[in-house]
Amino acid sequence: xxxxxxxxxxxxxxxxxxxxxxxxxxxxxxxxxxxxxxxxxxxxxxxxxxxxxxxxxxxxxxxxxxxxxxxxxxxxxxxxxxxxxxxxxxxxxxxxxxxxxxxxxxxxxxxxxxxxxxxxxxxxxxxxxxxxxxxxxxxxxxxxxxxxxxxxxxxxxxxxxxxxxxxxxxxxxxxxxxxxxxxxxxxxxx
Length: 190
Hints:
Mean pLDDT: 79
Low-confidence stretches: 110-115
Largest sheet: none
Structural class: mainly alpha
Oligomer: single chain
Order of helices and strands: HHHHHHHHHH
Radius of gyration: 22 Å
Distance between the termini: 73 Å
Strand content: under 5%
C-alpha cells in the first residue's frame, strides 16, 4: 500500500486524513516537509526554529484533521501557513527586548551624576512606548514593528504581507501618529 498511497493526489490524501488515516498524514508530511522547511529556514535563519515551525504546522493539521477545510491547493495552503508562522515567530523574536537593550545601552553611556533619576525617567518612557505599541491594532502593530524594530523597508513589508507599499505607509503613519499623541499626553502629565 505504501507505493500506492504515494500515487494519490493531495485531495485524495486529505479525504483519507479527515477519516484519521495515519498513512495519508505520513505521505503528506513526506511530500511537503522539505519544501516547508526550506521556506521557513530561508526566512528565520535558524534551522531549529524552522523545523519547529514546520512541526507546528503539521501538528495543527493533525489536530484539526476532521474539520480541515482547504479551499485552495494544499501547496498554497501550506505556503500561507508557513508565512503566518514565520511572521508570528519574527514578531515574537524582535518584540521589544532588542530595541530596549540598544536604547538602554546608549542612555547608560550618556548618564551624568543624576543617573538614577534619568534611568527611571527613561524606563517610564520606554514602558509607555511599549504599551502604546501593544495597543495598536494588530496589523498596524505588525507593520510598525517590522519597520521600526526589524528595520525592514516598506517594499519588503509589502511583499511579506502581500499589501501595497501605500498601505504600509498608511499603517506606519497611523502608528506614529498614535504613539506621538500618546507620548505627548504622557509628557504633559509628568
